Amino acid sequence: MKILICGKGGSGKSTISVLIAKSLKNRGYKVLLMDADESNLGLHRLMGVTSSVSLMDTLGGKKGAKDKMVKLFTKGKTPVPFANEKWKISDIPDECTMDINGIRMLIIGKIHRFGEGCACSMGFVSKTFLSNLEVGDDEMVIVDTEAGIEHFGRRVEEGCDMVLGVTDPTYESFMLAKKIEEMAQNAGAAVFFLLNKVDDAVEDIMSAHIDMEKVIAKLPKDHTIFMDSLEGRELKTELPEIDQVCKFLEDFK
Hints:
10 helices, two-stranded parallel ribbon, alpha/beta, Rossmann fold
C-alpha cells in the first residue's frame, strides 16, 4: 500500500512519517520511506543518518530527468513509453536509496541553489514514480510531502492508495484539513486524519473542527520527540498511538 502523509508546515508530517515507517518495519513489512518534500532537509536526520542522496541528483539534475529515469529503472530491458512503464521496489537501483536499519529511503530531490527554478520537475518525478510503482502485500510505501496542498495540484495522489492528513492545534490546520479531504476524494484516494500534539486543553476544540469518523488516532504532545525533532536527532521514541495507526493500515489493506 502507498500512503501519502500531508498537512501544513510544522504539523509533524516528517516526524509521523518516520514513526510510522519504523513501526511498520517492526511489524514485518518491507518499508520504502519516500521524501517528496523539496524544501525540508531534515527527514533523513530523523532516520539517524547525516548525509543523503537524491533521485534527481542520481539522474543528473532536472534536465532530462524523465528519460533518464526510464533507463535507470529498466536496466537490461527495452524501455517502453514512459507513461506505461511499471516497476517494483526491488527494481530501484541501490545508488538511488539508503538502507537505514532495514528501511529503504528514497529522496526525490531538493532545491539546492538560488535561481535554479521551481520544483515542478520533482513533482512530476514523484507523481510518475508512484503511479508506476507496484507494491506487494508485504510492502508499505510512506510518502512525506511538502507543506500545504501543491502536491494535489501536481496529481501526486493519483499514485497512492491513502492520504493521511496530519492536523495540529491551529485554525489554519483545521481549514487545510477540509481542503485535503475534498481534494483526496477528487483524486480517488481514501482519506483519514491524525490529530497531532493533542493535550487536554485543545482536544475538544480539535475534535469539533475535524470529522471524527475520519480520525484514526490522536497523538499526544511528547517532549522527547519534540526535542529530537528540534535538534535533528534520530527518533527512537515509540508511541502506542502509532501502533494503533499501523494496525488500522493493516486492516485497511
